[in-house]
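Session log. Operator J.P. requested a structure for one protein chain; no other inputs attached. Running the standard single-chain path with token output.
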Amino acid sequence: MTTLDRAFIKAFELSTAPQTAATRKGAEAPRPPKAAPAKPPAGAPSFRATEHSDRSDQPPVAHDALCPPLPPSSFAPRPKNYESFRALLEIDRAAWPAACGELLVRAGRDWDRFTEQLIERMGQGQKCVAVASIARGDGSTTISLALAKHMAARGLRPVVVDVNPQNPTLVGSCGISAHSGWDDLLSSELPLGEALITAVEDGVTLLPWRGPAVAVSQLAGSIRAPGIFGTLREHYDLVLLDTMALVGQTTIADFASFAAAVRLDALYLIHNVRTTSPDELIAASSKLRRAGLPLAAVIENFVPPASSGEPAGPNESKAAPARELAASGDWRSD
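Structure written below.
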């Protein structure tokens, strides 16, 4: 091979495999272009990156230093204007019937004993009590209000419910005009407080019936009634039912169904000594017990004063709560 051939081959190799600037001896490798940091928008919080070191003698950088905590949220739930079980209507005091005070004065010791019985029952969870009569005019509303006042005077929280849809007289006897009643709750989604009325100075709450007359069977079949009375039981010390006169087998059976729906704990039957004989009282109490009603005792009303042998008038009557009929072998006072 001649010298010219070797020179041609060398020139060919150099032309097909050119050296880059990085492979030439003494050449410096190119560096990637530097990216300029982005500027945060005006008003945005600034964060500074912390360099990590491979040296083990430096403490680790806390996470809070890298990511400062955000300010607490300003969201807060809106306060409730009222609780659903609190009365929306409050009055200073009710115009109680004059007979209420007279009953409490004339039979003070009997009322004290009666109250002690109720407090003992309340301690056992029996907080729903009904006052019923054999006939209209026996004084169930007056005795219910007097009992509520007596319980409130002891620092307890009673609520009196008008359960006389045929002839409601509870709030009317106290001089109160009701704009709604618990009958409105049965047919709507209104809260319980819409129908409650509280006499603040007296410490007594009333739940009236304002609607038209209905049969007791409709109350027994109501879907909302158990919930209403369950809420009353939860938030009041005593739920006192002022009921209609329990006359006739149909009325007694319907009221027994209602009592079971609202979990009635005790029923106190009024004995009007002027118009109902002991035999009639025994017969009526037997019907109530056969219907499954929790008859607890008898409240004797219109009892003549001890100094007089004549029957007492309406303004001279007294009540002897929870007295047992000595002549009755059919039932006893619990």
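Operator note: The longest helix spans residues 108-123.
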